[in-house]
Each structure stands twice: as structure tokens, then as C-alpha cells.
Amino acid sequence: MNVQLDALDRKILRAVQRDAGQSLDDIAKTVGSSKTPVWNRMRKLREAGVIGQQTVLLDPEKLGLEACFFVLIRTSEHDAQWQNRFLETLRARPEVLEAHRLAGDIDYILKVRVANARAYDSFYQALIAQVKIHNVTALLSMEELKSTTELPV
């Protein structure tokens, strides 16, 4: 269900996407409103599920997670039991930042953050030990050109 947003709602969403830690005063100043209407709108946006959990973005390289792999997975298994096991396996692996089921020749793509190629190999060995996979292709990202969590609102 789509939520109807007006211009002020969109300004608020853009402001909190850039920095959810800023004060209500700062958000109100940025969007050209006062605190009470901004607070009420943010409360309604939370209640509607438009605004979800607030988190902090960490720098993976400063934490020693210098390698980003995109893992392309093809499987010959498509039954519910295999899918549930695969999903449980992915959820249990903190290295997996994103996982998507795809249309086309590739069944799944994972975004995996690890320290280096050796750490990726450990991840890979653990993955194939837990779930039967037909084919895995790992692509190492040489440079991140753009990364954002901001949606175009």
C-alpha cells in the first residue's frame, strides 16, 4: 500500500535519510517548518511504516572488511525445503549484507563483505557445506563508485 506524501513529508524523509541522528530542531530548520508539525509527521510516517528502524552506517574498510564480493548463485533446487534452508543459512551469516532472488539465468545474488579473499573462501566453503548449490560465481568489487541508502523521494 502506497502512502500519500506531500512536499513537506518528502523534505522530512530526505533530511532524515541523510542523517537520522540530527535533532528535531535541525530537521525542522532544514525543511522550513517548526518542530511540532515535523514531529507529528515523523510519528505518522513511522506508524505507516514509511520510516523504519534507525541505524548507524559503519565504514567497512576501517573495520578491516576491505573485500566486497558479489556472489552469483545458480541452483538446481527450487523446492520450499531447499529455499528455507538457504534463507536460514544466509540469515546466519553476518558477511551477507544483501541477498536477492532474481529473474533470469542467475537465481540469487549476494553482497558479501569480508576482510580478504581467504575470508571469502571460508565463507564459500561454509555456504556450500550447508546448502546444495549448482554453480557459484564470485565477483570482487575493485572500487565502489556509488553507495547510498537514500531512496529517491
Automatic annotation (TrEMBL):
One GO term (biological process): response to amino acid
Chain ranges of the HTH asnC-type domain: 5-66
Source taxon at top rank: Bacteria
GO CC entries: cytosol
Keyword DNA-binding attributed: yes
Keywords: DNA-binding, Transcription, Transcription regulation
GO molecular function, one term: sequence-specific DNA binding
PROSITE patterns reported in the protein's UniProt record: HTH_ASNC_2
One Pfam family cited in the UniProt record for this chain: HTH_24
Name of this protein: Lrp/AsnC family transcriptional regulator
Species the sequence originates in: Palleronia salina
